[in-house]
Design brief:
Mean pLDDT: 82
Number of domains: 2
Structural class: alpha/beta
Distance between the termini: 129 Å
Organism: Fictibacillus solisalsi
Number of strands: 14
Shape: elongated
Helix content: 55-70%
Number of helices: 7
Largest sheet: 5 strands, parallel
Protein name: Polymer-forming cytoskeletal protein
Order of helices and strands: HEEEEEEEEEEEEEEHHHHHH
Keywords: Membrane, Signal, Transmembrane, Transmembrane helix
Strand content: 15-25%
Length: 281
């Protein structure tokens, strides 16, 4: 023994390393949460298995779930898993004769999956930011429009009272007509500037209408009666724009106000034209 101290030491270190590197075999624990390879022997039962960064081999019975993150699951013959098998960043291998009562979900985050996940998240965040910025700009423009038309806001509000359904229908028809004309003009290079102006007109009308509706909405709050005009327009527009962001219902509400604004604007222009024509007569 004294002649081979180095050889004996190397052999002992090698045996210890093999012992540490070997996968753990579990059969008596209820819940196994490890960062090592896990093996459930045949005829053994475990409640749950959760493994991080390594593989799980099931030969026996798992009463609840097997969850493996960044590893694989190998379900051997005669193995039984009563509930969920969830694998994230790995694969599931199931031999014939094994039984999994619940679903098997495997999410393999390879390069295409990671790219798709990243792209989807980027689109989702970008859409949310775009909606937030658009909402802030719409509130700001509404307040500016309201302050600019504050002296005439009451007379303009009277245009739509009692005639909302008819004006909404008129606005929808006018919107469709403007869209068709804009598309036809955009086909020709010369008509593109006119097409842009036609599309900007409904936007300006809608912002003006939103200022009117914001003023009317704010007037319903008694606490805002003595407040400065900008605060009333800000409060009303904030409530209305917030409603626009609700799924489906917000879009419908937005279209109704848009059509109502456009219908009211054309009614205003028509009445002004008719009044001027009468004066000339």
């Amino acid at each position: 023994m004294k002649k081979y101290p180095v050889l004996i030491s190397i052999t002992m270190v090698f045996m210890v390393a093999l012992t540490l590197a070997a996968p753990n075999v579990y059969g008596a624990e209820k819940n196994v949460i490890k960062q090592k390879d896990v093996i459930v022997p045949a005829r053994q039962s475990i409640e749950n298995i959760i493994v991080f960064g390594h593989d799980a081999i099931v030969k026996g019975k798992v009463k609840t779930a097997v969850i493996v993150i960044n590893g694989d699951v190998d379900i051997k013959k005669n193995a039984k898993i009563k509930e969920l098998v969830l694998v994230i960043g790995g694969h599931v291998k199931q031999e014939a004769g094994s039984k999994v009562t619940d679903n098997i979900i495997a999410i393999n985050l390879n390069s295409p999956s990671q790219n798709s996940l990243f792209l989807g998240g980027l689109v989702l965040i970008s859409g949310w930011l775009l909606r937030l910025i658009s909402s802030i700009m719409l509130v700001f423009l509404t307040v500016i429009a309201g302050l600019s038309l504050h002296k005439r806001i009451n007379s303009l509000a009277g245009l739509t009272k009692g005639q909302a359904p008819r004006l909404i229908l008129s606005g929808a028809i006018i919107s469709a007509a403007l869209l068709v004309v804009s598309v036809l003009l955009a086909i020709t290079v010369i008509g593109i500037p006119v097409s842009i102006l036609l599309l900007l007109f409904p936007v300006l009308v809608f912002i003006t209408g939103l200022a009117i509706y914001s003023h009317e909405l704010a007037s319903q709050f008694s606490s805002l009666e003595d407040k400065p005009p900008w605060l009333r327009y800000l409060t009303g527009s904030f409530v209305l724009v917030s409603l626009f962001n609700f799924p489906i219902i917000g879009s419908i509400f937005f279209l109704l106000l848009f059509f109502l604004s456009l219908g009211g604007a054309f009614k205003f222009l028509f009445e002004r034209f008719r009044a001027r024509k009468r004066k000339n007569i």
